[in-house]
Amino acid sequence: MGGENSIRLTNNPADRFPTWSPDGRQIAFYRYSDDGTGIYTIPALGGTEHRIYKGPSNTWLDSSGLAWAPDGETIAFTENNKDKIHCHIALLSLGDFSTHPLTWPDDMHMDYLPVYSPNGHFIAFQRDNVGGTTGDIYVVPARGGEPKPGHLRPSE
């Protein structure tokens, strides 16, 4: 910010959805290809990128999104199902790179665009029908639980 020189971090046109780490030292992003979706991190001032996740590809490239937890230990992301149509919200541990699903939409819906609450206790996301004609914002506890349509109070 405020400098005259910009830094190009990647050269791949399939890189999308960059998000800053809470400490500002790294950027996480998606890289799409025909053989799958990857999540990568790269130092914010440039350097070597590291793939931290590899999963199925997706036909809905605009329906993804990444969110770094405020504590910097987890990334919430849109994980694609093997059918390349459906997707759900999953959590990626930056300690051991394990993943686990956080939401399980039915066959008529898909979940994407996760965002952590400021205190990290909740994750908001968009749930749409597979046709993309209707959608709602849902909230789920970051530790797991039943997603509910609704809103958060500013303290959450």
Report mean pLDDT, rounded to a whole number.
Answer: 87
Contiguous low-pLDDT stretches (5 residues minimum) are none
CATH class: Mainly Beta
Shape: globular
Relevant CATH superfamily: TolB, C-terminal domain
End-to-end gap = 30 Å
- H-E string: EEEEEEEEEEEE
Count, helices: 0
Largest sheet: 4 strands, antiparallel
The total beta strand count reads 12
What name does CATH use for the topology? Neuraminidase
Assess the beta-strand content as a share of residues.
Answer: over 45%
Computed CA radius of gyration, to the nearest angstrom: 16 Å
Annotated CATH architecture: 6 Propeller
Strand order of the largest sheet: 1-2-3-4
Tally of individual domains: 1
- Structural class comes to mainly beta
Fraction of residues in helix: under 10%
What is the gist of this entry?
This protein has 156 residues and is mainly beta. 0% of the residues lie in helices and 47% in strands. The chain is globular, with a radius of gyration of 16 Å.
List the helices and strands and how they pair.
Blueprint lengths: L14 E6 L5 E8 L2 E8 L6 E6 L10 E3 L5 E7 L6 E7 L5 E3 L7 E8 L5 E8 L5 E7 L6 E2 L7
Antiparallel strand pairs: 1-2, 2-3, 3-4, 5-6, 6-7, 7-8, 9-10, 10-11, 11-12
